[in-house]
Design goal:
The protein is mainly α and 306 residues long. It is built from 13 helices and 2 strands; from the N terminus they run H-H-H-H-H-H-E-H-H-H-E-H-H-H-H. Strands 1-2 form a two-stranded parallel ribbon.
Length: 306
């Protein structure tokens, strides 16, 4: 769920739907198709994720200590972590959201408090699970999904979206001393990528292409699993999938010029993709989850043992 820093959100800064509309435009568009009750729950979950992510990427001098306090609170310790966290715990208790997933999300945020240079694909996928696969798992519970098999596909959607986030934000991440592209793919330092010199432009573009190709495997799996969700939720998640997936296609359309900054999906594209999402609602037998997609994720929240 890695998004960008927006300044610390105060407890009374806004309502969940307003924060979603302001800071998660693609998700807000998709949430319009959920109905009022489910949209509000989804927005409440987003508010928690947005809050901890904003804290992790912000410039507060005590942000690591604050994240550690939240992590401890999720473990059941009696520490003060703020009203946003108490509101999330109440949401989790109401909808059976596993706090182990939220705790793993915090572990990912805490890892971002240090310079980041991932080594290989396995480390990349485990990071993606911690900051986004966990969100897919939690969203399953928020949407009242009773089909246990759906959780593996929901994790895949979170991972796919995070891979897309990384591909879009390579330059910004490098400027924050983070390189999520594995060194086994491209061995430039974050500082070298931040400088965007001619010598690293094409090698990094190739690594981003590889990242997007990897994301396609997870998007394809997630698209199959949409049919396991309650019918009321399927269209919204299908739209979110297609809109986020489109970011990668826009990058490819722009010939991977990552050094020119992040790309956006236009409003017109969102409308067209929403119409195309209707095709994802047709009845279809969902095959077993492809276990190789989780071979590097054993022991993490929601991942079925092999």
């Amino acid at each position: 769920m890695k998004t960008r820093q927006l300044g610390h959100l105060s407890p009374s800064s806004s309502q969940p739907q307003q924060i979603l509309a302001r800071h998660g435009k693609s998700f807000y568009w998709a949430s319009k198709f959920l109905g009022a009750d489910l949209a509000e729950r989804a927005a409440q979950l987003y508010l928690f994720c947005r809050y901890v992510d904003d804290l992790a990427d912000g410039d507060l001098p005590d942000r690591q200590e604050s994240l550690e306090d939240i992590r401890a609170r999720l473990d059941g310790k009696h520490v003060s972590a703020g009203p946003e966290i108490e509101a999330f715990i109440k949401l989790a208790n109401t909808h059976n959201i596993p706090l182990s997933a939220a705790a793993e999300l915090l572990d990912g945020m805490l890892s971002d408090q240090h310079p980041t240079a991932l080594v290989d694909e396995a480390e990349l996928l485990r990071y993606c699970h911690s900051v986004a696969g966990t969100v897919g798992l939690m969203m399953c519970r928020v949407l009242n999904c009773k089909e246990p098999r759906a959780e593996s596909f929901a994790i895949d959607l979170g991972i796919a979206m995070q891979l897309t986030n990384i591909s879009r934000d390579v330059l910004e991440d490098a400027q924050m001393d983070r390189r999520y592209l594995p060194s086994s793919w491209v061995d430039f330092t974050p500082q070298q990528i931040a400088e965007a010199g001619v010598n690293c432009q094409q090698p990094v573009a190739y690594a981003i292409t590889r990242l997007l190709n990897l994301s396609e495997q997870y998007y394809a799996s997630a698209q199959l699993g949409i049919r396991l969700l309650p019918f009321r939720s399927r269209l919204s998640i299908a739209i979110a999938l297609r809109v986020y997936r489109q970011i990668g296609w826009v990058l490819k359309r722009r010939n991977m010029v990552w050094w020119q900054g992040r790309v956006m999906v236009t409003a017109g594209e969102k409308v067209l993709l929403s119409l195309r999402s209707m095709a994802d609602l047709r009845p279809k037998v969902v095959p077993p989850h492809e276990t190789k997609l989780h071979q590097h994720l054993q022991g993490l929240a929601g991942v079925q043992p092999r």
